[in-house]
Design brief:
globular, alpha/beta, two-stranded antiparallel sheet, Rossmann fold, 6 helices, about 30% helix
Length: about 220
């Protein structure tokens, strides 16, 4: 895998664009400046890796627009050492950013072709999520709860209660909710039964897929 001076220069330009578009978290920007997004893209699209656009990956999924990744990560407001559940491993790009921020990442992918491909990529890059499984993101990872943070990287028609229930008190869930367009929402668990809800504008995501068998 080759990370050239050209790629590094293009990343710096991308980070400047993200600043201009309103991303303020220096830790997030610093990590994104050092992560080679082109490693996570199909070979034919490598030249577009540092455009602020979403691009197709395997299984009719996408690698999210860098602005969207930065926005969600900023909303998540992670702290070093926290336990984070990611719903939708996808290309692994978001996972790599979370790992770069020093958190323990538990990640779930619903598409087997992507699960296997990204698992190999993580191995090649020396990236080590705490746990990576092939399964149903709607169910979360109840064997590992509770989590400090949960991030959903696909559009959900509604907020899965299982994910809310797997948050620690004080924990945050960032999730895009809606059908054709999604509203970015952040839930903060304030007690065993109550959550604060915040809204942060509209985005477009591929749909969150449910395993109809209901099993992980």
């Amino acid at each position: 895998m080759n990370d050239t001076l050209k790629h590094k220069g293009l990343r710096r330009q991308l980070i400047q664009l993200l600043r201009e578009k309103g991303i303020q978290s220096e830790p997030v920007l610093k990590v994104m400046e050092h992560i080679p997004r082109h490693f996570f893209m199909d070979p034919g699209l490598v030249n577009f890796a540092y455009q602020d656009q979403a691009y197709p990956i395997a299984a009719n999924q996408t690698i999210s627009q860098p602005y969207t990744v930065a926005f969600q990560t900023e909303l998540l407001d992670v702290q070093n050492g926290q336990k984070v559940l990611e719903i939708g491993t996808g290309s692994g790009y978001q996972t790599s950013i979370l790992l770069g921020l020093g958190v323990q990442v538990y990640t779930i992918e619903r598409q087997q072709i992507l699960f296997k491909k990204t698992q190999r990529l993580f191995s090649d890059m020396g990236l080590r999520p705490k746990k990576m499984i092939f399964g149903d993101g709607y169910l979360g990872m109840p064997t590992e709860e509770p989590f400090d943070r949960i991030i959903v990287t696909a559009g959900a028609p509604e907020v899965p209660k299982s994910l809310l229930n797997q948050l620690k008190i004080g924990g945050k869930l960032v999730i895009p909710v809606g059908e054709k367009k999604q509203q970015m929402l952040r839930f903060t668990r304030t007690s065993k039964t109550s959550f604060d809800k915040e809204k942060f504008g509209e985005f477009r995501f591929v749909p969150l897929l449910e395993n109809k068998t209901g099993s992980i």
